[in-house]
Design a protein that fits this description.
Strand content: under 5%
Oligomer: single chain
Order of helices and strands: HHHHHHHHH
Largest sheet: none
Distance between the termini: 34 Å
Number of helices: 9
Amino acid sequence: MTPALSVSPKPWPGVSNPMPDGFDWLAFLFAVTVIELTPGPNMGWLAALTLREGKAPAFSAVAGIALGLSVQLVAAVTGLTALIISMPSIHVGLHWAGVAFMLYLAWQAWSDTGSAALPAGVRERGFRRGLIANILNPKALAFYVLLINQFVQPGAAAPVWLQSLILGSIHLTVATLVHAGIVLLATRLGDRLETWRTSQGARLTFAGLIIGIAVWLALTPPRA
């Protein structure tokens, strides 16, 4: 009797759709958008920089932030993918670390009152400050490693690093659009944007949304 043949995923170079079938794009885009719209250091700094020094330094800062996030993304994809693949048990730890990370972001959203949005005396060029701040920001790397890991599937046709690169690039695009939007809004609305950003209602709303994401992650069984 001829033994049954096992069906393995096609090699990724010939895959027309590198993401797994049934991938939950809505959940991923919702999580990324909520996180980027949540009041935080980048949002507060960009708004304050725009109000203080104008659009040109602020848009330069947006470019610096994007480049810094790109460096973090490449580091996460190239340096940690092999570890994730070789030790499947790490998925469980990363799963719960992702939950804890979301709760931390919720706390940060609630506690951000704008008092440290732009430290007094900071006169560095926007691009340099945005680049350095995001290269040295461990939360950016944690985002790519912890949250994106919840959406990649090691058994899919495309390798984990390619899935991570695609999802990270989408996050980078969303983040850049949000940051550019903050500069435009700050230019148009002035101090009203900062007043809204630090209001109790805005902070409570975004903190609640991120807590919802944390609960959703916690209820999603980790991949062992």
